[in-house]
Write a structure and sequence with these properties.
Layout (H helix, E strand, L loop, with lengths): L6 H27 L1 H4 E8 L10 E2 H15 E3 L2 E9 L3 E12 L5 E13 L2 E8 L2 H14 L4
Parallel strand pairs: 1-7
Antiparallel strand pairs: 1-2, 3-5, 4-5, 5-6, 6-7
């Protein structure tokens, strides 16, 4: 039987679900347009996709930079979410699928995709993406051991 969620976990889940809905409808540009609603001004993004310009993108400007860099290597990279769950009181795990179409090559990549967000005061403070559910879930288990609910 699943444990009951705390009020904080329910609020964090609502934030992550709303971001996922916006992303699925309008892509990363729509998420960036709603940045202030969901992300801390000093939000740190660590993409799992290797080969982009920075290891960490900070704030709204950093997120814009990440989007611009993605557009240089992909014509399309939609993410479809299949599961969102609370990880302790401070993190959210989102699991889904990434469909990536290379710019110029039209080569496609269909991959598992996971994101771990750290939520602080009702907004995401940081996010890290993974190209496998197993890696994302392993990191979530580690975080859960470090900061259990209750």
């Amino acid at each position: 039987m699943a444990e009951a969620l705390s009020d904080v976990q329910r609020r964090n889940l609502a934030i992550a679900k709303r971001v996922a809905e916006i992303n699925e409808r309008g892509g990363v540009e729509a998420v960036e347009a709603a940045f202030d609603d969901f992300f801390h001004p000093d939000f740190e993004w660590r993409p799992g996709l290797a080969g982009l310009g920075a290891e960490v993108y900070r704030g709204r400007d950093g997120y814009r930079e990440f989007i611009a860099e993605m557009k240089t290597i992909a014509t399309d990279s939609p993410v479809s979410v299949v599961e969102i769950r609370a990880v302790g009181e401070t993190h959210i795990l989102t699991l889904g699928r990434l469909h990536f179409v290379g710019r110029g090559s039209d080569l496609t990549l269909d991959s598992e995709y996971g994101v771990l967000y750290r939520i602080e005061d009702g907004r995401a403070r940081s996010g890290r993406s993974f190209l496998s559910h197993a890696d994302a879930e392993a990191e979530a288990r580690r975080l859960e051991r470090e900061s259990p609910v209750g």
